[in-house]
Amino acid sequence: MSKVSNSYLSIFVKLLVLLALAKSIALALWWFLPDDGVSLKENVNFNPPYHRVTFKNMLSNVGTSNAVTNSQALQESSIGITNMILKGLYGNKTKGFIIVALKSSPQKTSLVAVGENYSGYKLKSILKGGALFTKGGKEFVLKIKNQKSRTNVHSSIMRVQESEGVHDVSRQDIRYYEKNPDQIWKDISIMERKNGNKINGFRVTRVRRGSKMDSLGLKRGDVIIRANNVDLNSYKAAFDLYKDINKIDTLQLVVLRNNEEKELVYEIH
Amino acid sequence: MVKIVRFFAYMLFFIVALMYFMPKESIYFFAEKQLQKYHVVIAHESVKDKGLSLELRHLDVYVESIQSAKIGEVDISLFGVYNEVKAHNIELSTAVALMLPTKIESLTIKYSILNPLNVTLNAVGAFGTLHGEANIKERKITAELKPSSLMQRKYRSALYNFKKQANGEYEYVQSF
User: Fold this and answer.
1) Residue B95 — φ and ψ, nearest 5°?
2) Continuous H helices in chain A
3) Contact A33 B64 (CB under 8 A)
4) What is the rounded radius of gyration, in angstroms, for the C-alpha atoms of chain A?
5) What's the confidence (pLDDT) of residue A58?
6) B5 in a domain, yes or no?
7) Total domains in the fold of chain B
8) I need a labelling partner for A230 at 20 to 30 A (CA). Which of A52, A72, A178, A246 fits?
9) B7 within some domain
10) What is the residue range of B30's domain?
11) Same domain, B65 and B89
């Protein structure tokens, strides 16, 4: 009886020793291991969001309906072209808008797009230093205020667009590449450019001639460093751009070409 | 013979005790830190020590800070002689939606002392079923894929990385 109980006691003691040993190893490990895990640190872009002042978004911001209402109201009180002040213009011959006011209330400005009416005058096109209106088959040129002083003119104009610097991109093309991602890498090769371990842009290493990518103005050797005011210093930044490409109307790329920064602007229609 | 049986019984007891006392959460945090070196971050997960295994829920996996997958549940059981990681309800990011079906129902990775040179992997999802092995000695991964009809219909370009076999399955071989 005593032998049996001794044998059970021996087993119990051995198990207890094994338990103590296991616990000691676990405690020793616990001492060296970290107490908390890794949390995600998101890089925040401190640059202001890119906003391109364009014909389209200016109209949508100001509200086309207000502009129409204003022009209709003014149309009724037949005002001559000499009573108007042209305060600013933006665009080219076929598209754009002007900022115009009446001499009687110069602070009350209206935004008029090409093709719209203001005080009975239809804005036909935008000229270099003024706007061309038509009324009753006749053409009228309204010159910008203070035209003699070039600097003043430019400060009142937000930005006269040089159309050759802007590339039009069809949304269909974007959808095409979205559906055929393989085609992107057939048409263009891009790889990260690193300074040590840090990415400081994406280098264009190949552009297939005659491809849709070729028409975008990117050249072999260009380093894309910024897109819509976001520094492309991580894969995430590049991926976010790729992910949101369908939601944006304008894409501004800043590339390093021959060690000079060059801006490429794409309007997505 | 009795001594040998007793030895193995004590050994088993010790391993189970060790597994029970092991600071599994801390080991997981350590593994997370190792993964971070490869720019893989697991975030927003809840970690629970289940005694002999570790349960993780609602994991967001980020690779290079890009959200790459959401995993509903992961069970990790490490016994030394038999180790298993089971993941369920995996939803890959929309980034890969154009290349692969995003839904993976289950993924199991096993390492057993009975097959000491290979780590096996089994996955079932909208892409079909996949069975793979990573040979530690030869540093080679081989995988066999039985693609689903969806995979064959919509994601044919992803199959270009595989070699079609006579039985209709697709084989992938890669050294690491």
Assistant:
1) -60, -30
2) 2-32, 55-62, 64-76, 150-156, 171-179, 181-187, 235-244
3) no
4) 33
5) 57
6) no
7) 2
8) A178
9) no
10) 23-76
11) no
Identify any residues that bridge with A169 across adjacent strands, giving them in sequence order.
A268
SS3 A81: helix
Q: What is the ipTM of this complex?
A: 0.74
Tell me the β-bridge partners of B106: B88, B124
Give pLDDT, residue B118. 94
Where does the pLDDT of residue A268 fall: very low under 50, low under 70, confident under 90, or very high at 90 and above?
Answer: confident
Q: Is A23 exposed, middle or buried (0-12, 13-18, 19+ CB in 10 A)?
A: middle
Q: Given B13, B22, B64, which is nearest A235 (Cβ)? A: B64
Nearest to B43 among A23, A40, A182 (CB): A40
Residue type, A28: A
Instruction: Please indicate, yes or no, whether residues B60 and B83 belong to a single structural domain of this protein.
Output: no
Separation in Å, CA A114 to CA A37, A92, A99, A117: 59, 9, 11, 9
Based on the domain organization, do B104 and B174 belong to the same domain? yes
B77 is written with which tokens?
């059981």
Tell me the count of A-B CB pairs closer than 8 A. 82
In angstroms, the separation between the Cα of residue B62 and the nearest Cα of chain A is 8
Q: Which of A19, A34, A182 sits opposite B29 (nearest CB)?
A: A34
Show which of B76, B110, B139 is a domain's final residue.
Answer: B76
Mean pLDDT rounded to a whole number for chain B: 90
| DSSP H or E stretch at residue B32 | helix B24-36
Strand ordering across the sheet containing A138-143: A117-118, A121-126, A130-135, A138-143
Q: How many CB atoms lie within 10 A of CB A112?
A: 27
Per-residue pLDDT tens over the stretch A125-145: 887 778 888 888 777 888 876
CATH of A165-268, one of 3.40.50.720, 2.30.42.10, 3.30.565.10, 3.40.50.10350: 2.30.42.10
CATH for the stretch A55-161: 2.30.30.830
B104, β-bridge pairs: B90, B125
Q: What is the signed CA dihedral for A38, A40, A46, A47, rounded to 10 degrees?
A: 130
Instruction: Please list every residue in chain A whose beta carbon sits closer than 8 Å to the beta carbon of residue B47.
Output: 37
B14 located within any domain: no
